[in-house]
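hey so u asked for the seq, here:
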Amino acid sequence: MTAPQTRAGAGFPFVRSGLRVAALAALLAASSAQAALFEDDEARRAILDLRGRVEAQREANERRLNDMQRELQRVSGDETAALRASLLQLQSQIDAMKAEIATLRGQNEQLARDLSEVQRRQKDMAQGVEERLKRFEPVKVQIDGREFMADPAEKAAYEQALAQFRQGDFERAQGGFNAFLAQYPKSGYGPSLLFWLGNAQYALKDYKSAMSQFRLLQSVAPDHPRVPEGLLSLANSQMELKDSRGAKKTLEDLVRLYPQSEAAVVGRERMQRIK
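ran it, structure tokens below
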């Protein structure tokens, strides 16, 4: 029985080798399984440890977050109250400023009305002053081909006396002309006034006084447009005084000195009638 087993084993040497290999493989597999089991445990412990640390860190973070939220709520509440108080104070200041602005606006409107009234009064006063000043300011006058400046009062006095003459009030006209000459001896109205004064005196039959005015007119203003008429009136006054020779001489001077005047035409006719 033994011999056949020995032969059998000897007859299949590679079977034994296979068994050894299989046994070795089983041993290695068992070793590998144990190693794998060992490695899985360590990994599991590492994972558990990591989980524990993560959980602890999470809890710590949650606690810190909660603390921070509570602190933030406390701080925010205080700041909100302070901000609300500041806003209320600011709103009160704004309301006060609005009221002050409204008051100032009303005062400004009143001041504007007062200023407008003052300006209107000043304008009226200025116009009144200007009108009063115009009564004293010289004005340009044109009369008998002459132009000159005269005071308003001077102009009014001359026009008043002339108006009296034209109304036939020769007595008052003479008084007005004489008063004018006394007050304005150098007036531009002088030559014209001498002419009208002489005519007023002629109308009053004061021929000698009239002759004096006509001669004075020719003497002070020989180129005045009224001089030819004055010489004609002078000759008329001489004729009224029966001075035919003097009248003829005056008419000759009139025709010689002012030959183109209308008075010279009349003078020539009258010379022919004087004997």
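The chain has two domains: 1-134, 139-273. Residues 58 and 97 are 55 Å apart (CA to CA).
lmk if thats what u needed
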